[in-house]
Amino acid sequence: MKKHIYLSILAGGLLLPGALLAQEKASIAISSIKATPALVASIKSPDKKTELDRIVESLDGQLVDRVNATRKFDVVGRSDLNEVIKEQDLGASGNVDPKTAARLNKLTGAKYLMVATIDDYQDYVEHATFEGTGRTATKRVFRLSIVGKVYDSTTGKLLESANFQTGNDEFKQIQAENSFSVKDGELSDEMMVAVARTLAERVAVHVADVVFPAKVIARRDTQVTINRGEGAGVAVGDVFNVFALGEEMIDPDTKESLGRDEVKVGTVRITEVDPKFSKAEVVEDAGINTGALLRKPQVKTPQ
Question: Strand, helix or coil at 194?
């Protein structure tokens, strides 16, 4: 049986202290999404600047909706939060100091603060001519990247930082699945909403997985029930690895928690998704019990 070490670093971010013991909804404040000043300055075309603004607006609303749809968080105090972010000029930088975070906590009553920034955006068509044949070809190039950060608003400590990207492959998949039309180097309104929703859901699900890891909450014969439902990144057919956790490991020098010893005890496949929970069949079983953690196998980021 293969053993792992359940480190503080998880899926590109940091495991929040006490996450495994949390049972109630967490309150979170979400700042308005901004593009970094460097990205804005790099876009010279007025049409592209307008398109970026529309993407920002779409992502802004979609992120709040997707975080709420996980059913793990209470989104609170956004109007107050945006004013503090604006005063501190943190909307684009994503950097929050302890004093600012403490003020945010006082205004909103939120345990966590999420700041998301767009740091990369490309959308254009490349044209190529092949020597000797005179043939030409075109290629759509699309890329959108968000950096998401989560802070403990009571201490100002950065708890989670991860990068989320969407690119050509996912762009084509969304277009094909929905039969959306696209213009050369310009997103249609429908396509823009679909791309924003897909990326916002990935951010929201990742944050939910870090604060509240998916768990087995019941087992009956070869069927388990997990605490993930609609809107939480679960679909019929998804496969999860299941892990049992051992004792917490503490660094003897710094007294810092290094996570918990972890052993893979099986895999399950989702068979039914309900609003608040999902059911799965046990595929491999080496001791899957109530309370075990579930995580999807890591996959390559779509390009």
Answer: helix
CA 149 to CA 141: how far, in whole Å?
27
Please name which of 56, 55, 157, 147 lies closest in space to residue 94, comparing C-alpha atoms.
147
pLDDT per position as a tens digit, 38-75: 999 999 888 888 888 888 988 988 999 999 888 888 88
Q: Outline where the chain has alpha helix (H).
A: 37-42, 46-69, 78-88, 98-108, 168-178, 189-211
Alpha carbon distance 281, 297 (integer Å): 17
Smallest CA-to-CA distance from 149 within 249, 13, 45 is with 13
Question: How far apart are alpha carbons 51 and 54 in whole angstroms?
Answer: 5
CB-based contact 121:55 (threshold 8 Å):
yes
CB of 19 closer than 8 Å to CB of 68: no
pLDDT of residue 98: 61
120 beta partners: 145
| Residues 223-259 pLDDT 10s | 999 999 887 888 999 999 999 987 777 888 887 777 6
Q: Tell me the angle at which helices 189-211 and 168-178 cross, rounded to the nearest 10 degrees.
A: 120
Burial class from Cβ neighbours inside 10 Å (0-12, 13-18, 19+) for residue 73 reads buried
Q: Is the pTM of this model over 0.85?
A: no
For residues 71 and 65, give the distance between their C-alpha atoms in angstroms, rounded to a whole number: 10
Task: Walk me through the domains of the chain, giving residue ranges and CATH numbers.
Answer: 19-211 (3.40.50.10610), 214-295 (2.40.10.410)
> Is residue 89 left, alpha or beta, with left meaning phi > 0 and alpha meaning psi from -120 to 50?
left
DSSP state of 238: -
Tell me how many degrees the CA angle 39-45-46 measures, rounded to the nearest 5. Answer: 100
CB 239 within 8 A of CB 268: yes
State the virtual CA torsion across 190, 231, 28, 83 in degrees, nearest 10. 10
